[in-house]
Design brief:
Number of strands: 7
Largest sheet: 7 strands, antiparallel
Distance between the termini: 77 Å
Strand order of the largest sheet: 2-1-4-5-6-7-3
Radius of gyration: 21 Å
Structural class: alpha+beta
Helix content: 25-40%
């Protein structure tokens, strides 16, 4: 009986040690599964505005500014009110980004305003909306 208790303590201690000291790549992979504001890769990304595709230096600057943007707030999109986020009542023309992370394709609609940037993310059949802060996007790509 004593051996069973000692063996149980050793097994539980080993599991606790394994879970609390995971390698950094494993932790990054795990957290990446739940990340809302994903980093874009230029090789797997297509950006367009008003039907015109951004390429070259302009595309690289946009992706760099987007990746460096600071996450501010998540909007909760409930089933039934997705159309309010997909078709907002605004005069801004969004940047449409088609990208791929791993095996998953997704579409981002990026609305750039003077003080903030709204992002609507569509993948599979889900819609997520959030706001980021990016001075370089707001200053460079905002016309008003």
């Amino acid at each position: 009986m004593t051996w069973i208790v000692i063996l149980g303590i050793i097994v539980v201690s080993a599991l606790k040690l394994l879970i609390t000291t995971m390698p950094t790549p494993v932790v990054k992979w795990f957290l990446g599964k739940f990340e809302l504001h994903s980093k874009l890769d230029a090789a797997h990304t297509k950006i367009e505005k008003n039907g015109e595709i951004l390429e070259g230096q302009e595309k690289q600057k946009f992706i760099s500014a987007f990746n460096q943007a600071t996450f501010l707030e998540k909007y909760y999109v409930h089933s039934g009110n997705e159309h309010y986020f997909l078709n907002p009542e605004t005069d801004e023309t969004p940047y449409i980004i088609h990208s791929k992370i791993g095996k998953h394709d997704f579409k981002l609609s990026v609305y750039i305003y003077k003080d903030y940037v709204d992002v609507i993310k569509q993948y599979k059949k889900k819609v997520q909306a959030y706001t980021v802060l990016s001075d370089s996007l707001s200053n460079t790509h905002h016309i008003n």
